[in-house]
Each structure stands twice: as structure tokens, then as C-alpha cells.
Amino acid sequence: xxxxxxxxxxxxxxxxxxxxxxxxxxxxxxxxxxxxxxxxxxxxxxxxxxxxxxxxxxxxxxxxxxxxxxxxxxxxxxxxxxxxxxxxxxxxxxxxxxxxxxxxxxxxxxxxxxxxxxxxxxxxxxxxxxxxxxxxxxxxxxxxxxxxxxxxxxxxxxxxxxxxxxxxxxxxxxxxxxxxxxxxxxxxxxxxxxxxxxxxxxxxxxxxxxxxxxxxxxxxxxxxxxxxxxx
Length: 231
What we know:
alpha+beta, three-stranded antiparallel beta sheet, 8 strands, elongated
């Protein structure tokens, strides 16, 4: 089933892309959560027109790309985000959001798939993200991921927050692993107990053929006359 993504979804695609997904995945997850919309022809044509319009503002030559490098690297892109006390975002900053911010502030189109961003940004801080503008021409975008309504703390404090967050993540991962191990052990114990009970019940039951033999030995065979007693 073809859908148009409304958000960047890891291992699926980027916002605005038309992708093929399993019908059940679309109906039960993407569409109800408004992460995607049906790929109707009119909407697809609209997105293609928008992409063609923006393509006019991307680097068309090596020389033009070099000019754009100076323009892009001379500006820091700021993102005001909601974050927790340790600097962890309540969401993430995605490749599409970065490309959109470049377009909004610089009126330059970059290929979001050419951003060297292995995964979405999930913590406050300053980041440098390379992006290929043209063959052999790369610009390094400078990003400031800032807690909403505030400013970035000093670098030393950011590093301390990163360490705290890393420790919390490690503790949570260890706790989850312990819970999985405990659940597996409980399941194994339950299975072993059930098997033991089944074996005990089997041992207590008298085999049907053995019961029949016992009855046959206790009852005389019909028609058989007992031997005469001498007088």
C-alpha cells in the first residue's frame, strides 16, 4: 500500500515521501496516528510540484555549491525544543526538520538524505552536521539545540548532563535486562513445574491394560467348571 509520510520514520522514510508499506501497518499504525496519509494522485502531484520548485534553489554547479558553502557555514541554525532536566529531548530533531530550517532561513534546498546524520538528534547541545551540496562539495551545518525558553548551558555543564543521562540510560537498560531475565526464569520454572505435575499424574494412573488383566485374574472365565473335590 502506498502512503505519504507526514513525519520522518526510521527504517521507513522521510516526511513527504511516497513509500510502499504493508496494508496492515498502514491501517493499524501509520494512518490512525496521522504519521501518514493515503497517496492519492492529487496529493502526490502537489508534493512533486513543491519539490520541483525547491529544486531550483539547490546547487546546480560546482562553483555555485562553493558559494553556498560560505553562506551555510556562516550561520548557526537554532532549534528551540522541549527537553528534560538532563537535556534529553521530548522528541527529536530529524533530517527533514534540519532541511526545512535551512530552507526557511537561507532559502537553500539541501538533500536531506545527504545529511550525515546517522540518527535523529535527541539531546540539547551544539552539533556539526556535514551535508553534500554537489559532487566533491560539502558544507558543515552548525546546529544549536536549545531548551525551550532558555539558552544552552556552558560546555562543561553539557558534558556533565551527558554523563548523567548516559548513566540513567545504562541503569534503565540494566533494569530492563534484569526484568527480562526474571520473566524468562519465571516462565522456565512454570514450565518445569507443569511438566513435573504431568509426569506425577501419569505415574499415579494405572495403565488400562493392566487393570483389565487384574480383573480377568480375579473373575473366573465363563463356562469353565472348577475341578471336583475328592470325597
